[in-house]
Automatic annotation (TrEMBL):
Name the record gives this protein: AAA domain-containing protein
Higher taxonomy: Bacteria, Bacillati, Actinomycetota, Actinomycetes, Pseudonocardiales
Keyword Hydrolase: yes
A Pfam short name: AAA_11
InterPro entries noted in UniProt: Coronavir_polyprotein_1ab, DNA2/NAM7-like_C, DNA2/NAM7_AAA_11, P-loop_NTPase, SF1_C_Upf1
Superkingdom of origin: Bacteria
Coiled coil: 666-716
Amino acid sequence: MLSPQTVPKTKPYRRQAHEKIFDLAAGDLAPWETGHPLLDEPLPHRYTWRFTAYGGLYPLAAVSETLVKAFGQDTREERPSEGDTALFALTIDADGCLVENGATLSACAWALGKLTSAEPAPEALDGFDDVERAFSSEMDGLVPPDRRATDEEPDGSTTPGPFDRIVRAFGQRLKSAGMDAWSAGAEAAGTAVKTVAETAVGPVVGDVAGAAAGAFTESVLGPGDDGEDGEESGSATETPSTPRLLVTASALHAFVDEMAAALGVRDSLGARGVRIRCQAVPNRDDSADQTFLNSHIADDLNHVAAAVAADDVGPALRDYLTDERSIGTAHRIDVRTNPDAVIAAVEPQHIPAGRWPGDPAKPLVLSQQFAVNRVLAELRDNPGIFSVNGPPGTGKTTLLRDVVAGIVVDRANRLAELGSPAEGFTDRIELVPVGPKKYQIPVHGVSSALSGFEIVLATATNDAAKNVSAEVPGVDAVRGYAEEALGADYFAELASHVLDSDAWGLVSATLGNLQYRNTFAKRFWWADYKSTQNQDGTKGMYEMLKEAEDDPDSAQDWETAVAEFRRARAEVERLANTRQRAAESITAVAACRRQWEEARRAFADADALCALVRDDLAAGNVEVTRADGVFRDADGDYESHLRHRPGLWVSLATWFRAPREWQAKHEQLEEARDAAKKRLRDAETSRDQFQQRLNVKTAERQKAEEARAAASYELDRALGEVTRARENWPGHLPIPDDFAGDEEFQKCAPWADEEYVTARNRLFLQALRLHRAFVLRSGPRLRNNLSVMTEILQGNVRPSPAARLAAWQSLFLVVPMVSTTFASLPRLFTGLGRESLGWLLVDEAGQATPQQVVGGLWRCQRAVVVGDPQQLEPIVALPDSAQHALRRHHRVDEEWTPETTSAQGVADRLTRHGTALPVQDGDEQVWVGAPLRVHRRCDRPMFDVSNDIAYGGTLMVYATRHDGEFPGENRWIDVQSATSEGHWIEDEGDALTDLFVRLSDQRIALDDVRVISPFRDVVTGAKKRLRAQIGPDFAKHNVGTVHTVQGKESDVIVLVLGGDPRRHGARQWAASRPNLLNVAVSRAKRRFYVIGNRKLWKDLRYFDRLAGAFPAHEWE
């Protein structure tokens, strides 16, 4: 509501230009009035003029000033405030009649009136939808009856609520009042309209819609040519004269005054004047022009909010809207601290079969391939969202191209399952009337097997969307493989005609706003739109399809196309399987090494134990021998003593002393013998036990030895496989130990040897050939669907949602990807509901507010969000004080404030694989999605400054390679000056012109130089200087704010700092975050020049690192 759109700038009036924009003074002749020179200019056949009147112009800067007064000071130094907006806009046809649904009331002007009329409060802004509907209905009451559409419900409308019914009744009564004007005169009509407004809707709406538009009715309706002041001519029986429309310049200016007063902004905004936009449009274009004054997405957000409240939402958007406190962190995997997770994810079994057909010598590096693999692995069969963090120069577009290739091949797999292209379509949905004669064209459904592969690329700006979608089909996108890509002949000639430059294939389309849609539709379908590429009579898609129907042999037969695709797929699978075995061997090496080490330790333990037991056995044998000797001696002594037992006579002779002594000795010897015998038996038992234990341990040792040998064999086998893999695919095995540190490892292109990469290239091209065969052999069903689709793009038909979806799906079958801005997305996909499309690719998501992507997420099943929160932030015109006031009123958490986060930041929270980066303030860290790490754009020291100030000095890896020397030296041109005009410093302008003299002397091509600044005042001054020094084209295209260069690069970047020396806050704003300087320095490939007061800037945060890297050069 408070972020109005600008009205178009005036253009010098040129005859025969099909668009003219000029300011209309109160006394001027309107361009639709007889006598205006515009009406004498020739137009193309079947074209007419369409006008848009922008009334009550006021500068965007006035919006911020008013909001600051209402809500408090803004902390941001500069916000987008260039250009003018308007109180209202009216669409007028060639006869000067208002066009139905062509009136727009400025939400911003209405809101500012509310905020300045009383004590400012966010709740005062409730109710604009009611006012807007009433205003539009009232102005529609002034449309001539024969130029009105029937009052049918719009597609997808819901049961009207109480106020809707009031507004509808109000609109009908207004139309009746307008009808009365054609028979009763202007004054009565004006009174009737005013009365209806005030009584049917009430004072809130009536104040604006009734009082102002009622007065306008009186001013634009007048008597017919038959008489004056409504008097009749002729007989009394004749009907009253028909009044004629008098939409004059003076009437429009009067309406401006009435509207400014009714809205309460006459003094605060100073709205005045009328601007007219004249456009040549087809005669049959009876729809209102796209007159954007209000937020492009506000209505769509309301629509999606209602759907979410009704639980009509898919996983992608539901996940996106998850509250920060509900997001767990335990599942996160930091790819920088867990390299094994990355290595496992880039195995050939996870690499998509198809690849973008680029130079086989320049494959994706580790982090890029990891991101592509994870995107398709996680989202191919499941809805959801995946974020990729892409620092500058790390190949975001390259990554997106490979994602597109993977999706196209996946759909080709489905196509290959069809018995014939006819199986790709289902029953007829409806007949759609097309053209002036309302030919009934049947629309057929598209098989569900072929749906879900639609790709929508969405960005915040037209330039960003066009950059990617125009780059993808361009020949440069297949450099190194262009001959083969052109050989695939995926409608290359038509693609060049559509793109208006050399293209290799019809793989994307730039849609979005009405101009882009019209251009594409006409070039694509009929090839009859002005194009430098249509010099030899390019055939449009319609003609190609008709020729294929008339002569089926002119297109490749379906069976052959399927067979060739399957052969290409089988070859990729064969090569992938070979490499997968090697990947498994790499994984196995570590496991085998662990197993071998375990087996080695087990054998060593068993061998040591065997030795111990063997020693015990030896000791046991010794003991047996000793015990046996002792026993033998004891037994000998015992036996000898037994033989010498005294007889009777000796006993008698010794008085039995001898027998007693013998007996005592006998018992002693017997005891000694028994003891020796027991010792022997014990020794023999112990020896036998040792022997048994030795036998067991020997068996265990043998088993351990066999296990060690087996583990050694497996290790040798795995090492051999890896060795052969290293020999076959040197440098492409993701083994960290093969590289000199992590930085070199990050540059590895896993499994991307030329043979495999080339096979994947061929498969993608074969997939496109299969798509071409499908397109040319689908017959009337696809042709009819595409015919309706081109009418949808031009706004000529409004089929049912089901027919509209089938038409879109048919276009995506031919053109895999279309691009749009977030602003144009809701209108582009009008009538398409929840998850009706397959893939949403969000590029430069760091520049998008969290709210901008909601409509795309709701309509798509899967989303890949690519960007960098450390580069440019979302452009928000609303002061932060107003943002927070509105947020608090609507009870929204601060995490959703556009000032503090982006769509990228919201998506990053959800992605499992990512990394933690340090936060600039404090010791905390922030989680970002899967990071791209290898930088290939900037020379040093630009790379180092970017990496240090935004990524902790460790995220990006330097891999820039530029051939040859480049003239000049990086430096900071120190300009000391105490005077300025705003932020423009004339002395810095002198230094800039001197620098360009030096660059010219060094023979540096000026097309390779860009001049940027944080401040618009500096840009204005620099453009003036360089326009005079070099020329208007350079000033227009090569000079701008830092915000204009994200996504671009140049050999030389000149950063003119400027900054009012008396306003320290401006410099503090530029240095409050690393984003601005990060973008500035990372645009420069070879040289970076800073022009500015080094003393004032060098101690500021981030700029101190810049000062340390770039030597000072005093300017004189």
